[in-house]
């Protein structure tokens, strides 16, 4: 590179492979910019106390792709970590562990860098990834978004929760929140896989189900294995649509796709129709669409049957909540209309014998036999009396004073021989025995 400029930036092959350059072998020499961990670059984050909790914040404005710090701790084998958890660590102790590779983990529970104290978020502004430094594996934290000064540093804690074999409820509150972390969730049957529609939990039973890595929805083992084998970076490079992956993020297959307007991800119409219905596809095809990874709120109904550790079991299906509520409302209304059948949720008021109110139909103090008070209460619904109309306003059938109104029916005339709603007097009634003359 020219003097005064750094080399080995975005075009560096080692940086693309997350491998730091060796000083003797790098062509850039001292101007190499791919040796952040080796040069012990000053970190740009610090700890601040907020509401009794240690929060990691940025000390200055940080652009995307900048090294924030190294995640350090004790390097252990996975078996040694399991022994520590069983013998040394208590249940109330907070653990900070992350996988380093297939066999080793970094345990920063007792001692480590401040990167371990960063908060969790399903839409983080940084990431902790593995790098090769002089042949050794290391964990480094890099920013993935532009971070402002004094902004909280966050990264995804899902690998840590999966390593500890835990199931936790997420409350980060972002639009892309996965609700349940850990790769597993408790569920009640019947429940089917969102990809191949095979049963993962039988009806009338409960158990643990695997969660989709990107959507946190129920998925079977075969579909999960197939998803993990896909190289999405290669899909993005070889797709026919520029800037889009071209394969469904739900089933990993190609077909009739709907592309996200905010990210390169795509979804096939088949998965959207099976899991969310045909109306959702029409909504996605109109205008700009945000995918189910950027905005997971349409998946809340599917996740409603899942629960984490320490939560109560949910026995109702995702679509059964609305049906159950509507059915309860209908049964309560039916009880009010028909006293013979009552819902167990509504108490029925009863009076002791001999204490019925006077004048109530069917009561002991009602009128003589045949009077209106002794008429039995109907079995069906109670007929409600129609409210009486005011004078001069008899409704749409009998208009007001102005206009050609029809002849007033019997019982609706005013005193003085005037029609209800008209100022004209009525003709005098003729005697019944006299004939009607011409012109009268």
Low-confidence stretches: 317-351, 354-366, 410-414, 416-422
| N-to-C SSE string, H for helix and E for strand | HEEEEHEEEEEEHEEEEEEEHHEEHHHEH
Average per-residue pLDDT, rounded, comes to 78
Strand order of the largest sheet: 17-16-13-20
Describe the main β-sheet briefly. 4 strands, antiparallel
**How would the global form be characterised?**
globular
What is the helical fraction, as a range of percent?
10-25%
Give the helix/strand class. Answer: alpha+beta
Between the first and last Cα atoms, what is the distance in angstroms?
119 Å
How much of the sequence is in beta strands? 15-25%
Q: What is the helix tally?
A: 9
What radius of gyration results from the CA coordinates?
38 Å
How many β-strand runs? 20
């Amino acid at each position: 590179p020219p003097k005064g400029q750094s080399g080995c930036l975005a075009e560096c092959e080692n940086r693309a492979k997350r491998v730091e350059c060796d000083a003797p072998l790098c062509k850039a020499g001292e101007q190499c910019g791919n040796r952040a961990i080796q040069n012990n670059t000053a970190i740009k984050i610090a700890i601040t106390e907020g509401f009794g909790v240690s929060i990691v914040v940025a000390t200055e404005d940080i652009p995307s792709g900048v090294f924030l710090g190294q995640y350090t701790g004790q390097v252990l084998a996975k078996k040694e970590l399991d022994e520590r958890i069983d013998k040394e660590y208590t249940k109330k102790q907070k653990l900070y562990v992350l996988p380093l590779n297939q066999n080793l983990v970094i345990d920063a529970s007792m001692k480590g860098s401040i990167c371990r104290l960063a908060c969790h978020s399903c839409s983080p502004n940084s990431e902790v990834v593995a790098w090769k430094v002089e042949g050794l594996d290391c964990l480094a934290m890099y920013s993935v978004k532009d971070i402002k000064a004094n902004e909280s540093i966050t990264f995804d804690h899902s690998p840590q929760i999966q390593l500890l074999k835990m199931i936790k409820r997420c409350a980060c509150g972002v639009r892309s929140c996965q609700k349940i972390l850990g790769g597993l969730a408790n569920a009640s049957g019947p429940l089917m896989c969102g990809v191949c529609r095979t049963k993962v939990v039988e009806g009338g039973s409960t158990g643990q189900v695997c969660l989709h890595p990107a959507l946190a929805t129920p998925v079977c083992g075969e579909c999960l294995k197939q998803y993990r084998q896909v190289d999405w970076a290669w899909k993005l490079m070889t797709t026919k649509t520029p800037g889009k992956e071209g394969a469904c993020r739900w089933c990993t297959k190609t077909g009739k796709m709907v592309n996200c307007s905010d990210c390169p991800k795509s979804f096939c119409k088949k998965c959207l129709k099976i899991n969310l219905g045909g109306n959702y596809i029409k909504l996605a095809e109109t205008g700009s669409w945000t995918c189910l990874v950027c905005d997971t709120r349409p998946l809340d109904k599917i996740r409603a049957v899942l629960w984490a550790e320490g939560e109560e079991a949910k026995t109702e299906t995702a679509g059964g909540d609305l049906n159950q509520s509507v059915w309860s409302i209908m049964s309560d209304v039916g009880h009010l209309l028909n006293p013979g059948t009552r819902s167990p949720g509504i108490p029925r008021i009863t009076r002791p014998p001999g204490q019925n109110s006077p004048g109530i139909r069917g009561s002991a103090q009602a009128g003589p036999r045949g009077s209106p008070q002794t008429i039995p209460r109907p079995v069906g619904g109670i007929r409600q009396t129609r409210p009486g109309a005011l004078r001069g306003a008899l409704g749409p059938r009998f208009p007001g004073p102005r206009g050609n109104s029809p002849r007033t029916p019997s019982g609706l005339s005013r005193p003085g021989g005037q029609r209800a709603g008209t100022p004209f007097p009525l003709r005098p009634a003729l005697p019944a025995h006299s004939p009607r003359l011409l012109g009268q």
